[in-house]
Amino acid sequence: MNILELVTKKDEEKVKKLKEAMEKRSIDVLLFRLVEDVLYISGYWSSFGFCSVLFPLDGEPTIITIEDEKDFAERSWIKDVRYVNLETKEKLGDPKGDMIKIIKEWMKDRNLHKASLGYEGSMEFFSTNAMSRENWSFGISTYEALKKNLPEVKLIDATDLIYEVRSLKSEREVEIMKIVNEVADMGLEAFHKSLEEGKREIDLQAEVEKEVMERGIGYKGIERLVVFAMIMSGKNSAQAYKMYNVSTIKKLEKGDFVLMELNLNVEGYWSDTTRTYVVGKPNKEQEDIFDTALEAQERALEAIRDGVRASDINSIAFEVLKKRGYWNYITHRLGHGIGVNMHEPIPALHLASNHIIRSNMIFSVEPGIYGHKYGGIRIEDMVLSLKNKGERLNKYYRGA
Amino acid sequence: MNILELVTKKDEEKVKKLKEAMEKRSIDVLLFRLVEDVLYISGYWSSFGFCSVLFPLDGEPTIITIEDEKDFAERSWIKDVRYVNLETKEKLGDPKGDMIKIIKEWMKDRNLHKASLGYEGSMEFFSTNAMSRENWSFGISTYEALKKNLPEVKLIDATDLIYEVRSLKSEREVEIMKIVNEVADMGLEAFHKSLEEGKREIDLQAEVEKEVMERGIGYKGIERLVVFAMIMSGKNSAQAYKMYNVSTIKKLEKGDFVLMELNLNVEGYWSDTTRTYVVGKPNKEQEDIFDTALEAQERALEAIRDGVRASDINSIAFEVLKKRGYWNYITHRLGHGIGVNMHEPIPALHLASNHIIRSNMIFSVEPGIYGHKYGGIRIEDMVLSLKNKGERLNKYYRGA
């Protein structure tokens, strides 16, 4: 199936899971306002970010959005799509006011004006829209307007519920994430093959991004794709554990570690991978560093199974680093959940995590060794947890 | 001066303007939580997006951020930088809780625990951070935590104040925007020169983005730059008035209009430009379309002066389109403000706008003609309003 069919068709498994969670928490309606959640439930990935979905426990859901995105919105399995008035060349619009009005009427029409409404109250950290330039959030003014316009409604912060449901991928989502990571592999390959002494980090970034766009758009039906390749070499690679990664004008030198953090957003679903290679032939010490990271990743993969503690997976990988003398060179947790956002809170592969790994979770496994004399390396793959093992969704070469 | 010096040094003009506005509204402290406002006041452009600035009417301001961004934050003229505890490999962190604690103590230490605090209450639409992948907003849960932790503080939604102050650029900001648009011109040139029958839209996008990255990083000290080039040709170009623009795998054909929307974020400041060219030689009708758009843009530029109504500028440009028979082919307003976000509300160059153009505003002037048999064209430049005219910040060729 092509990716847009997978994304936009009704995902019965997902709908069922969501309704069970709503029932347990006595939530009658979920209001999704963030791009990632609108995508999650409807399959409609907003470019601009002004969109929402009313998802009731009983009855059919409704999308509210702008006319400009009609083509995208009407691909969704949700057939009731309502539009707000946008500005024309002659009149100014009030899309937010219109949205509140539609929500109010919708609740009244369905006799839900005294219902409990779940909202994304603590989701201040969220994925960008397809444009990646400006964002719409669910903020304070919409929240205040909801309270004012729905005085009898019980507002419930449903953030935890949403993250919990999102953490267990449906069969359809697993298929989507496999396609996304086929594209990621194209980027890892482009990086490996373009690596060359004398090139600047920024040149390599531009080349990888170009190749991913050119090969990715059109692949299995992909229409929208955002790609970010950050290249850090030599000493810069020692900084690659930080939250920002910047390619500079530094040239690649013989013997350098060159690390690429590759982040893709393909039709709304994310991939987050890293490869490190050496310019020229690695020396013995460098080989030992790679072997150690690889062994840490492999031991973690083998230990993954339904029911195991996420903290135990992290410990098993860290044990390898300790045993081989690299304990001071790992600075961060082993991994994080991923899906419609690049960092999802469940599961946290962290020593202090209380999450349990379940089948059909998808997360990163990313041992890193930073700050020794050669800089830093990281090997990061997307991993699907199966009943008895972890399966890497990225197949591209992980060595030196 | 290089761009980072311009961005990070204290901008006395800006600080004065902001304090005058605060005084008028009786705001003792402004809390900036969004990346664009933190950049605006401190010159520190966050990669990750978790950052804030406490800006008091009296006394020195304070930055609160994460240790990972120390290098960026400590370039700011604001010398008091405080850090929240992030997660380590062994402990989970609580950056939001830490931030609230720091704010609370800061207010108490300065005897401001009963002060009025301005916040970004209605800014649900905002610029992305330097990473462009995930965002932090100022959301409902932080707002509720502030109310709880600062029970005696008077919270004031300062959105209007912030947008008003931001609309008048300081001399330093004008310099910054000039550099940003020198980079934009590199992109417009790359587009024009790479245009070729048989290439796919997506190939052209990848080529332009590559060239902008390669030439832009390092130019006048630029370290961080995000570039988005959307190419729409032939029939696709007729859709270019919509809020999303997607390059497809369609190949450029002889006689096609090819439209590029180019959006740059350079060290936190935006440029938003558009060029349209014809593959091969334009015919008479096509030339007439270009002439019309150019004339509309030129008439608007000449009419710009300190004190004129934004709506009048829009009317003057639209008169040209009407007179030359293209009234039904323009679908949107003439332009929008720009700066630390790509779309800023002031000034709105719209027929229904009540804004007055003042010297040192920067905005787009972007007449477009869409939906005729050749598709659509738009010519969009960044314009600085001077006392007696509008000055285009983009110099690259605008013809067919």
Give a structural overview.
- Two copies of one chain form a homodimer.
- Chain A is built from eleven helices and 18 strands.
- Chain A is of the alpha+beta class and 400 residues long.
- Chain A has two domains: 3-167, Creatinase/prolidase N-terminal domain (Creatine Amidinohydrolase, Chain A, domain 1, 3-Layer(aba) Sandwich); 171-392, Creatinase/methionine aminopeptidase superfamily (Creatine Amidinohydrolase, Alpha-Beta Complex), CATH 3.90.230.10.
- Chain A has a six-stranded mixed sheet. A three-stranded antiparallel sheet of chain A has the order 9-10-11, with helices on one face. Chain A has a three-stranded antiparallel sheet with strand order 14-17-18, covered by helices on one side.
- The model of chain A has no long low-confidence stretch (mean pLDDT 97).
- At the A-B interface, β6, β7, α6 and α9 of A face β6, β7, α6 and α9 of B.
- β6 (125-127) of chain A pairs antiparallel with β7 (134-136) of chain B, so a sheet runs across the interface.
Which residue ranges of chain A are poorly predicted, with pLDDT under 50 across at least 5 consecutive positions? none
CATH class of the largest domain in chain A, named: Alpha Beta
Q: H/E series of chain A, N to C?
A: HHEHEEHEHEEEHEHHHEEEHHEEEEEEE
Overall number of strands of chain A: 18
Helix amount of chain A: 25-40%
| Assembly state | homodimer
In brief:
2 copies of one chain form a homodimer. Chain A is of the alpha+beta class and 400 residues long. Chain A is built from 11 helices and 18 strands.
